[in-house]
Amino acid sequence: MARRVETRNESLLTRAVGAVFGFVRHAEFEILFFLFFFIAYLVFKDITSRPEYNQIFVKKPGGPEFWPF
Asked: What sections of the protein cross the membrane (predicted)?
């Protein structure tokens, strides 16, 4: 059986903040899931945009031959 919530004469700002906190409480996993992939994307994008790190994807002339093709 559902509980009845007494509505006191709360201001619009108080109800809006309560609604935002309620949404975050119910959608916490989805928010953290999105943030994890967004931060991982930014870190990967930053690392691969630097020329010194990007050389691992390019075959260097005169280096050891790891892939014989």
From this structure: 20-44
| Residue in this structure with the two tokens 């999105």, named with its chain if needed | 34
Give me the DSSP letters along 6-32: P-----HHHHHHHHHHHHHHHSHHHHH
pLDDT digits (tens, 9 = 90+) for 16-58: 999 999 998 999 999 899 999 999 999 888 877 777 765 666 6
Q: What distances in angstroms separate CA 63 from CA 4, 50, 55, 58, 66, one per listed residue? A: 73, 21, 12, 11, 9
Half-sphere exposure of 13 (CA within 13 A, CB side): 0
